[in-house]
Amino acid sequence: MLSPMAGVTNWPFRVLCERYGPQGLYVAEMITARALVARNPKAFRLCRFAPSESPRSLQLYGVNPGIVEQAARMVVDGHMADHVDLNFGCPVPKVTRRGGGSALPWKLDVFAELIHRVVSVCDAAGIPVTAKIRVGIDHEHETYLDAGRIAQEEGCAAVSLHARTTAEYYGGHADWHRIAELADALTIPVFGNGDIWGAQDALDMMKQTGCAGVAIGRGCQGRPWLFADIKNAFNASDERVNPTLAEVGAVIEEHARLLTEFYDGDEVMAVHDLRKHVAWYLKGFAVGGATRKAFMQSENLEDIARNVRELDPNLRLPDEMADKPRGRVRYAKKVHLPYGWLDSRELSKEGREALFGDDPMDASY
After folding, report:
1. Dihedral-angle region of residue 323 (phi above 0 means left; psi in -120 to 50 means alpha; beta otherwise)
2. DSSP state of 233
3. β-strands 141-142, 129-138: how paired?
4. Which tens digit of pLDDT belongs to each residue from 329-352?
5. Quick one: three-class SS letters along 268-332?
6. CA 68/CA 178 separation, integer angstroms
7. Which of 75, 153, 159, 219 has its CA 20 to 30 A from that of 29?
């Protein structure tokens, strides 16, 4: 599974990963349910899929069960996806301070209600629903076993566990032992997520935890061919992709063209979106600061093509840089939660009114 990542897993990147990888789930980046219900144009853009994508996997995020149910009904009625994932794993403060993402499983009643409503809508259309969770808010407030059990009871087809707490954010090392515990506790499939930087990590996680599959997040940033490595590993092959910089450059140009299509021909938006990906594509290569700066200053496809032509085509990634951690590694200094969130495992009537009210969820992006 390609884990949904905000600002990363739009259809151009998913298509690149899918071309390399095995049949699986390549999940769209998180869609805010309130924005979808409000028919926000960016939300609809993020819901787009390429013709080649099958199944079409979409992730919804929200706190208010009624709003998420409405979004799920839009997905069903509009034939927008073949699979719906629910986000209960996001650790960023702007999400958790509203009680969303990895904060929501602490409130067992709201968590169960939200899943129940979405599954009820999707079941009628034959669309499976899965849930992405974390270990908990911190190690004094762990939720993964309760959340997994509730997800199973309410009809989820599978659960993905990022084996860190909200407080751990993306720092330290994922605790794969928690994945094993959850896999033992549930009868539905459990996907393991956290610290899969290479194909051997995927094999090790499967062996150590007994999970049904692996969910790849930061490990594939700038390396969509990681899915080829994992496909080979699962087929007992030692073959791994070690592209030359010329081959990486070709992927950068293809990514730029696909993003231009994603942005309806707007090369500036496409190339600006590409910048973070270029930093990941070039990570570990000895290309120099001037080259990186030139890519960051690109404004159109010709700029990208010109900078790719300047790369040393025969350069390869040094062996010592292969399968190393990528992406965000920072720790959260503090978990931001609604006032009094940890006082109870259920949300009081007053708490619901304060949290939902007239639906204060932001409909913008």
Report:
1. left
2. H
3. antiparallel
4. 666 668 999 999 999 999 988 888
5. HHHHHHHHHHHHHHCCCCCCCHHHHHHHHCCCCHHHHHHHHHCCCCCCECCHHHCCCCCCCCCCC
6. 28
7. 153
Residue 2's SS3 state is: strand
Residue from 85, 159, 149 nearest 122 by CA: 85
What three-state secondary structure class fits 191? Answer: strand
The enclosing H or E element of 17 equals helix 11-20
pLDDT of residue 364: 43
Q: Given the residues 17, 90, 156, 220, select the one marked as catalytic.
A: 90
Token pair recorded at residue 100: 């969303």
pTM of this prediction?
A: 0.93
Sequence-ordered list of residues with C-beta below 8 angstroms from that of 139, at least 6 positions apart, any chain: 165, 167
* Annotation says 122 is catalytic: no
Dihedrals φ, ψ of 163, to 5°? -80, 50
Q: Which residue has tokens 């144009």?
A: 41
Q: Give the position of tokens 């990634």.
A: 317
Q: Would strands 129-138 and 158-165 be described as parallel, antiparallel, or unpaired?
A: parallel
Alpha carbon distance 1, 193 (integer Å)? 9
User: What are 286-310's pLDDT values in tens digits?
Assistant: 999 999 999 999 999 999 999 999 9
With pLDDT > 70 as the criterion, what percentage of the chain qualifies?
96
- On the CB side of 360, CA atoms within 13 Å amount to 11
- Give residue 359's pLDDT band: very low, low, confident or very high (50, 70, 90): low
Written as six digits, the tokens of 132 are 């992405």
DSSP state string for 20-83: HS-SS-BBPPPEEHHHHHTT-HHHHHHT---TT-SS-EEEEE-S-HHHHHHHHHHHHHTT--SE
Give 131-190 as a DSSP string: EEEEEEEETTEE-HHHHHHHHHHTT-SEEEEEEEETTTTT-S---HHHHHHHHHH-SS-E
